[in-house]
Amino acid sequence: MFHWLEKNPFLFSVGVFLVIAFAGIIEILPNFAEASRPVVGLKPYSVLELAGKNIYMKDQCIACHSQLIRPFKAETDRYGQYSLSGEYAYDRPFLWGSKRTGPDLHRVGNYRTTDWHENHMWEPTSVVPGSIMPAYKHMFTNKADIETAYAEAVTVKNVFNTPYGDDIKPGKDAWEAYKPKVLEEAKKIAADMKNKDVKDAVANGEVPEIVALIAYLNKLK
Amino acid sequence: MQSNAALEYDYSVAKLFTYTTILFGFLGMLIGTLIAAQLAFPELNYLLGEYGTFSRLRPLHTNIVIYGFTLSGVWATFYYSGQRVLKVSMAESKFIMFIGKLHFWLYFVGALIAVITLLLGITQAKEYAQFEWPIDIVIVLIWVLWGIAMFGLIGIRREKALYISMWYYIACFLGIAMLYLFNNMSVPTYFAAGGVGSILHSVSMYSGTNDALVQWWFGHNAVAFGFTVPIVAMIYYFLPKESGQAVYSYKLSLLSFWGLMFVYLWAGSHHVLWSTVPDWMQTMGSVFSVVLILPSWGSAINMLLTMKGEWNQLTENPLIKFMVLASTFYMLSTLEGPIQAIKSVNAIAHFTDWIPGHVHDGVLGWVVFMIMAALFHMAPRMFKREIYSKKMMEAQFWLQTTAVVLYFTSMWIAGITQGMMWRAVDEYGNLMYSFIDTVTVLHPYYTIRALAGVMYLIGFVMFAYNMYKTMTSSRELSEEPQFRSPMA
């Protein structure tokens, strides 16, 4: 019945491709027209927050934490309002995660503070006895790559029309001109922290990873 | 017409991929065992400082197992059985031979770079699609080279009709190519921002819900076309060869092949149930996941019935045992998956350890067992020696089977316990447990899982040692075995 097809590898391959591509066309394409519209009032991530998001990705927080509150009473009681599609409009990539070894973080900015995150990342069991999360002490000495975060802001502004101000533009000079704003934001975070080395680094115009990460986590609400 | 004399097949590329299958299999399982132990004993996170945390090692584990171990196994078996079912030797074309070797070496170098960048935390943070854009380009090149080698061999074949295994290898090639390309579309920021920042960084072409949809359309189907389709290709070749039995039903293999091709791709959205993806897509994912039982069980039943009347081989030949158990685990896994894709079950199962449990009964029970059986079958034919030790194979079989059972049972209990605790409310409707309560309760199950990991790893080392001795010092064979693999 199908023997003729098995003797024509070219037709066979075309057939296989059409059959497997079918579902993608029906299921995925329609969603692209609308699902990335931001909810009213949603602001894109600042450069410091983007740097923090990149650290969240670099250290793979996504391996244990979700950012997706499902519409169940138990979840909205525990984490807050369930997640809406438009809240993720500026998330490239999405960071929903697939496993909760730790709790959901989609609205963690509502109920945790800079100070809490600082203690938690330095020694998780100091604030959550019994926690199996590793300490992330290296974040207090490693420097965040804010320049790359700036490049990311420029890219999403120019390629995907993410609404950033006119001072976010391509080129090294534009970055040098913008940098003080990032440092200003970092200083506000560091002011709420107690680690002496982190405070000194920020005063000297550097941004430790922990500062950027906390900026990002505080933005999640 | 060619003479009836047996062709001299050239196994040089198949051998190279056999070595990396064993190497990456060991590395992947070693890291897997370590991260399993880290969940039970968090102190183990600090063995390598920043580079040794669970979070940094987990993607390394998944990527080494998927792209290191499994793909090596797929290519080792392809470069072995492809020549045989097409009745053409690699040695007949200098060009194909060159492409095959280039394929291997580019792959090997690419794999090493991939491991290093993941350790350094250079990642897009999409599951099983972590690599940044320059590595993605290398991966595309590697894939294209495989395509050239495969379609080159098909082009000069002597056997007109493509054997079932070849259907599945072609599907693996096309499916992964389509999925990988679309999911990894990204814009490198260095160029878009006029030379600012890191050259390695990029942003996804898709955002938020769309990105999730494309990612899980990829993620689920990378499993389909990496862990299911090529492994089915293997069992369709190696089980009939090893047992000397013909495939039970040609019609059933047709039905299950085209069924699998059509249905699998729809099921990806069951990863985003109860999310912000539109409801009708979630329902499609859920429904098609259940339909998927038919083609999956079709292949598995076709394989089990191939042994009809010859079940005694199960007691005599450990290789048959490996393959029959692999088919059985395939059936278990492809029943468990659809159950988890039912919306009400998913509400409990999602985000819990039941999901890694499901993945691992599939991978450890089906994929790894099948690949090991395939390599055991190939070894006497590639190296012209009999398998070093049958007793060691038997011991390995039972050790690893016990390990898989311990793994999935502990994770089933852990996952359902956690899912139920998250939603438990008291008589006034207040949550009964804080999150940390649901973490600490899992300690015994994490310990059992780590133990299962150690057992499985020991089994794999026995496999590697048996293969090594087979290649180097086992008794030499004067002629190629017809079906049953000879073993001491």
What general outline of chain B do the C-alpha atoms trace? Answer: globular
Quaternary structure: heterodimer
Poorly predicted regions of chain A are none
**Helix segment tally of chain B:** 17
Element order, helices and strands of chain B?
Answer: HHHHHEHEHHHHHHHHHHH
Instruction: Determine the N-to-C terminus distance of chain A.
Output: 59 Å
- Name of the top-level CATH class of the largest domain in chain A: Mainly Alpha
Stated plainly, the CATH topology of the largest domain in chain A is called: Cytochrome Bc1 Complex, Chain D, domain 2
Q: Tell me the structural class of chain A.
A: mainly alpha
CATH architecture of chain B: Up-down Bundle
Largest interface: A-B, 91 and 93 residues
CATH architecture of the largest domain in chain A: Orthogonal Bundle
Largest sheet of chain A: none
Number of domains of chain B: 1
Q: What proportion of the residues of chain B is helical, as a percent range?
A: over 70%
State which percent range the strand residues of chain B make up: under 5%
Which of globular, elongated, flat, extended, rod-shaped describes the shape of chain A? globular
Rg calc of chain A: 22 Å
Whole-number mean pLDDT of chain B: 95
Membrane topology (chain B): Multi-pass membrane protein
Catalytic activity (chain B): 4 Fe(II)-[cytochrome c] + O2 + 8 H(+)(in) = 4 Fe(III)-[cytochrome c] + 2 H2O + 4 H(+)(out)
Keywords (chain B): Cell membrane, Copper, Electron transport, Heme, Iron, Membrane, Metal-binding, Respiratory chain, Translocase, Transmembrane, Transmembrane helix, Transport
Transmembrane segments (chain B): 16-40, 60-81, 102-123, 135-154, 161-182, 216-239, 246-267, 287-307, 319-342, 362-383, 404-425, 445-465
